[in-house]
Design goal:
- The protein is mostly helical and 98 residues long.
- It is built from 3 helices and no strands.
- The chain has helices at 2-33, 42-65, 75-94.
Length: 98
């Protein structure tokens, strides 16, 4: 039980950090779509590629399941809700006091 209680905070932290990456990716896509940031800037392109590489493997299966909503992508919202669900399940089922 002590091993599980020492791993649970690390897993919860990783899930929380990934939720921050999803939020950053959504904000970046809005800034890119509305031309607030310069898409030809090398640093901006590097940030965009990194966020895409971190989020697209998770988004792709969800996009295949979700119906087409025009130009609206709901996969980040679904992923955030799933992350919250997983965090709550880990917290409640682990039996560790955080």
């Amino acid at each position: 039980m002590a091993v599980v209680c020492s791993i649970v905070p690390v897993v919860l932290l990783a899930l929380q950090l990934y939720s921050y990456v999803i939020i950053a990716s959504a904000i970046f896509s809005w800034l890119y779509a509305f031309n607030v940031i310069n898409p030809r800037n090398q640093f901006v392109g590097m940030i965009g590629q990194t966020l895409y590489a971190l989020t697209e493997p998770v988004y792709r299966p969800i996009r295949n399941v979700l119906p087409a909503m025009g130009g609206l992508d709901l996969s980040p919202i679904v992923v955030l809700l799933l992350l919250i669900l997983i965090q709550n399940l880990i917290t409640n089922l682990s039996g560790c006091y955080l």
